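Q: I'm building a small set of examples for a reading group on sequence design. Run inverse folding on the following structure and report the sequence directly after it, with nothing in between.
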């Protein structure tokens, strides 16, 4: 099966391999600060699903440090400024707009990517991001995880599907690229539920620009860990996960950029699935299966 991989798409678009620099906007999340709740999504570790970044520094410094770290290993020259952790359009809107403009202004930055919740996208922010997208590509990454309302409530996502739908269409009308995140293996969901989420995403018009498919990871200290210990549920095997990913890839509109189809959770706090630890083996297996499909 041919898929439009992130790395290939970036080479086509920017003429070379590009890397994400994880940035911190110093945001929190309404699902953690008490606005909607304090516990967060059941699967979310306290780091807000974050990666490494240099949160204490001003944006140009974060970019410089990230660039040095990545360039030292890869020789990369172009980067995507990636606000990954927490809800990056939540908080003082003027301050955030300034941060986003700072990122776009950096010469080595070829695109800005902002992960957020669909219930934290004011119209004025969408308009502002549309303005920035005239300078360089702007992507908004929305964590849907599932289209199933019962699962979403059980996971304490704290927004309904129509909220996602509304935000998605406002972003697309404004000309902003949208990347949707989904999670496979959520407790209570079987394959038909996951396919239903894929069907929902696949029918969106205009079509999604990209997708990140994640395997559910049970992390230490999360509500999900407690739930798993009290009422263990089936964790997808690598083979089951891969089969479902392939079925989902088949359903997506042609050209959808596949930003990722596996995850490498923080090893120190990853409880299950243990097969995620062997990132190389998982990637090799999945790539072989996708090529054969
Ligand atoms: S919305 Fe994101 S940052 Fe907030 S609790 Fe859920 S996963 Fe964590």
């Amino acid at each position: 099966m041919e898929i439009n991989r992130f790395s290939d798409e970036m080479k086509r678009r920017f003429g070379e391999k590009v890397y994400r620099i994880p940035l911190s906007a110093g945001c929190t999340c309404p699902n953690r600060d008490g606005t909607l709740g304090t516990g967060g999504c059941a699967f979310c570790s306290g780091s807000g699903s974050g990666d490494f970044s240099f949160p204490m520094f001003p944006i140009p410094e974060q970019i410089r440090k990230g660039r040095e770290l990545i360039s030292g290993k890869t020789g990369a020259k172009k980067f995507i400024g990636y606000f990954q952790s927490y809800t990056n359009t939540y908080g003082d809107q003027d301050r955030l707009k300034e941060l986003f403009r700072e990122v776009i202004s950096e010469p080595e930055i070829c695109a800005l990517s902002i992960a957020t919740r669909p219930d934290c996208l004011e119209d004025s922010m969408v308009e502002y991001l549309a303005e920035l997208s005239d300078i360089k590509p702007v992507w908004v990454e929305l964590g849907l995880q599932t289209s199933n309302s019962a699962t979403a409530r059980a996971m304490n996502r704290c927004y309904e599907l129509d909220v996602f739908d509304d935000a998605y269409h406002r972003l697309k009308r404004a000309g902003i690229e949208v990347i949707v995140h989904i999670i496979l293996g959520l407790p209570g969901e079987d394959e038909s539920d996951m396919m239903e989420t894929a069907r929902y995403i696949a029918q969106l018009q205009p079509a999604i620009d990209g997708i990140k498919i994640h395997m559910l990871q049970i992390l230490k200290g999360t509500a999900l860990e407690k739930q798993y210990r009290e009422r263990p549920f089936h964790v997808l095997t690598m083979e089951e996960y891969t089969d479902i990913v392939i079925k989902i890839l088949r359903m997506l509109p042609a050209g959808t950029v596949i930003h990722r189809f596996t995850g490498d959770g923080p090893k120190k706090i990853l409880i299950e699935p243990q097969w995620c630890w062997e990132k190389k083996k998982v990637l090799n297996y999945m790539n072989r299966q996708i090529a054969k499909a």
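Residues 4-292 form a domain with the TIM Barrel fold (CATH 3.20.20.70).
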